[in-house]
Hints:
Blueprint: E1 13-20, H1 23-33, H2 37-40, H3 42-46, H4 57-71, E2 83-89, E3 98-110, E4 117-127, E5 133-144
Antiparallel strand pairs: 1-3, 2-5, 3-4, 4-5
Amino acid sequence: MERYFEDYTVGEVVEFGDYPVTEEEIVSFAKAYDPQSFHTDPEAAKGSHFGGLVGSGWMTGAIVMRLYCDHFIPRNSAMGSPGIDKVRWLLPVRPGDRLRARATILAAARSRSKPNRGVVTILQEAVNQRGETVMSYEGKAMFKCREHDPLTVTRD
């Protein structure tokens, strides 16, 4: 179903996705983007404060983004994001974990300068198979409005 700005209700909570995290993906991602030994070397990771291999927080964020693209972001009305705030990596993600995403609509405001769109503030969370929140952040997303404000439309 295609959603538009008007379809997001403050207080709405939606959970979606099921993403299995593998050791191979943790190591591959970390070697490319976050080459710390507790992400890249299972043996070295055993001696770290994590006690074993853990995924990069940036990988967790990328997984959440993939889940959002597959299950939450509408194809025709999404207009991107002006940014995110309050990024928190709360618990380590380990090989064998399964992640899903949770979206809680915190606020929605129609643009005053561009009334064909609105900005929705969303608490975005990654949740593991035990129901524990492993990552959270507040994202802002822009969506097209279904109907334009007729007072702002002028025709000659």
